[in-house]
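Our platform keeps sequence and structure together, in a single record for each protein. Such a record has a labelled line for the sequence and another for the backbone structure tokens. This encoding replaces a full spatial description with a residue-level series of whole-number codes. Below, we set out a record of this kind in full and without editing:
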Amino acid sequence: MRAFRLPLLIALTQLVIVGAAVPVNTLTSLAPRSQFCTNAPLTVAGTTFNRRSNSPSSRTTSLSRNFIWCAPGSNTYVAIRTGWAAASGDIVVELLNETYEVAVSRIATYGDTVVANSLAYGMIGAIVYLQSSGTVLKIANANNHQTTWGVLGAAMSALSNFVKEHGGFDQADFVIYDGENEVAIGTITTG
């Protein structure tokens, strides 16, 4: 039994010595990776996006349909996955702007409070459910977090700016982040 323990102890000692010799900062595959805003390539998603400190975004020419779109003047960003492009984004922009206006109005009246789940929006568990001309916007709290009216407004502004730059689409899924926190998920579908 002792003969078995001695070689094992020697092997473990050598592993510890070799492991201690590897600098920790060279293990980049274990380091967290930052995502950058598609509309502001110099801004890390989740940090404050100052429109003046970034070069203007250029239209994405790749075939990617995944975008990180940051809201100006806030830590809010939206991770967007779109479907096929539609002819016009006007109805989508109108719906997003309507939602933005509701958020701004609520903040002016009640302050920046949590958007509560409500049947008033037409869907159990949804915090927003709006429909206009066959286009439907659904948003629900996610990841055990709650969305505030300020974050909702910033996200709608970011989505609206995205659609204005990239055009409409038949369907999009998105995740709303407030800094590092995933606070809501949503979909936009056009009819």
